[in-house]
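Per reviewer request, we include the raw input and output of the structure prediction for the construct analysed in the revised manuscript.
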Amino acid sequence: MDNKDSEAEIHPLKTEDVKAQENHENSVERRIISKQSSRLSRLSRWRTAAFFISLFLCLIIVFAFSFIIPCPERPVSERTWFRDYDNTVAYQFLAIEDANEDKVQDVIFAFKAGNGSSSSFNRSCLDEGLPSPCAFIVAVSGTNGRVLWESPAAEEVEWMECGIKQLGGADTPGCLVVGKPASLTAVDLRRGEVQWRQSSDFGANYTVLTPVSVIPDVDSDGVQDLIIFIAAGDKIKTFIHSGKNGKQIGSPGSLSVDGKARYIMLNLGSSFYFLFYTENTLYAYSLKDLYTAATGMEIKLPSLEQDPQWERNVDRTTHRFSLLSSGDIRYLAKIPGRSRENILLVNSEMATLINAQNLQTLWTLNVSQILSEPLLGYYRPDVLAIVLESEIGPNRKKVMIVDSGSGTVQWDLKLNSRPDSPGPATLSTADHRSTFLIWGDYQEPGNATRSRAPLQKLYLFHPSYTNVLLELRNNTDEIIAFNAALFERSRHACYVLLRGPQPSEEPALVSLMKRKLKEDVAESRVIWLSQVAVDKDQYVRDRLYRMRFHSRV
């Protein structure tokens, strides 16, 4: 204490200076704090203003997109539509493709008439240098049946195939029309414009072996090519054409195969083979052999080699495939296997599945006369099944669903049937199984009466109800073609009917109809195969109506 007092007495102004300096420092700090507070306050106001301005702009954008700027219209598919064509005949071709890129499948078919059916296009046979009447290819919108395009394509249509990628060198797929007199026409699927047209010398009284096959690019122009087999007399000729411009590659080759043959094309991984079959004999040709015969040059594509296992079983002189020879062959079909496609061989008494890799028999099944091409579907979830229709008597058939892995019959049904009855169809469902659509006339037990000409009725069967059939419709008109598909991905399951006279008959009314499957399910008649439960009819109908469909890619 004494020291402090002495210090104050010696320097009496020091304490006051310190106080003044402290007051000055405190004042400066207060001004700095005040300035900082002011700056923070202004910054906070700017942040608040920026937030509200951003919010306001966001609301304006949402409002614009919601109410002012129109969103792209989603096509609304009509449940049912019809199109009628007067004084016309139709061909037995029906393709389902998305022609106008609206993500809804459209219908492409062919008819013969003097002029097009739509005044919007005003096309005539003379526009393409064809005599009248001629064959028109037409694409119809799957949403409402509106004509998308019409194109005069040939005098007569021998065969038509759609969905061929890069045809004509275009980015979009196309349709190939094989016409009479001998001609090939590539039609753009989007606009219906002719990409190229080429005449060819197929010879007299020829028949096209169908389908036309698309093969890898063998002329190195960047577009996959086409191979066409023509039966003329008792010989089969081979024509290879460029997919880009339709020009023939090399010269026609001749095969040592009876002209009454049919064929399938097999992809064996590193090689392609064409398996021809007549009533009693099988023949095998590699794509490499066919190309060499047509051009006289060895093909140099590594993906088109010959399969050693197959070559050991092919006679190099006659090309007979002795290992699989079986009399009275009715059908050959490709069945997907674990690693590569297997071969289903059907004769008049038996169906045999053969492993295409080692050519060993996987299973056999006793069947009678097969009436239609084998069809694939799913009876059990994700387990591939084969649908076979066999004749069991005059105007009688049996429909069988066969497990492709074991050859066991999973379900069968006997029906009355007309000779010209359409084949079956399948649609994949969300439970990884299939809906089966079958034509015939079911005769209920105890009903001994049977009409001389069975009616054409369309039935629906789903494996969730193994003892139930739904009768969807009763058709009395002549059916030219029938198909079923999902017109929108994983939704809108429909079937298409083309009815009317064929080219061998007199022109009359041709009718094209698309109908949503659920519309018929809601109005269907429930048939119980093994029990009678009238009180459950509506329950089953409702369950199958709510069934969802699924696109398998």
